[in-house]
What does this fold into?
Amino acid sequence: MAKVTSTDITVDEVTYRVHSAGDPDGPAVLFLHGSGPGATGLSNWEAVVEEMGDRFFCLAPDMIGFGDSTHPENPPIGMRAFNLLQADTLWRLLDELDVWTVHLVGNSMGGMIAMRMALAQPGRVDTMLLMGSGGAPGLPVSPGLQHLRTFYADPSAARLRHLLETFVYDMDSLEGVVGRVVAERMPYVERDDVRRSHAAMFDAQAEPPFFTDDELAKLDHRTLCLHGRDDLIIPVQASTYLAEHLPNASLHVIPRCGHWTQIEQHDVFVHLLDSLIAGRI
It folds into this structure.
């Protein structure tokens, strides 16, 4: 297993907490986490980065508005506006790290950020893995996603645990994992800057973050849309829609799996990502 290190990197007006492993001269893989309360790069990606850091330069930053990265004092309003800021500053982070081309891996909100990055600088993106990604229009908001959006109505450890239980299919086998993530995330949940970012991102009056068909048609990168069949946060129909509208996308649906594919089906996830990067998908 590769050792994960955490470093603060300042780019212009923002600072990213970057969790990384592997040789900086190797192929770069940027892991983009989702939007759950208290989410960080490590809580989403630590085990994957440890395993894949022996063959790739793996980067798993806390997104702007999350964890120990910058929380703007006057944050953008809405998921779309936040994602545009995140995409822009992530490219500047990669410039700072002398990374020109990159494989993008996005979970949920991270999938939307990956697509925003690819729209902004398509020539620098090699492949994309979109896991349980948002961004497809016309789908109803699931009860699980509504719970996530309104979490701060009662930001307790018990409510966070209840929310995270809906992220997985087989809670019996992941009891310890969910408990650990709750413990890791609660110190962030309780911070005022994290709460401010969450409120701005999920402002009910904001523009929806969905992609148009014209935008999706421009993303001709080799892409894998990966989804747990039993996802209670983002329905599997979201990845079906993206796979139908992205010009060079494949779809893989994992049975008996929820929103955290990389945790609940770790070995399958790593195998599929390896295969995508190697050109076997």
About this structure: The mean pLDDT is 96. The longest helix spans residues 79-96. The longest strand covers residues 14-21.
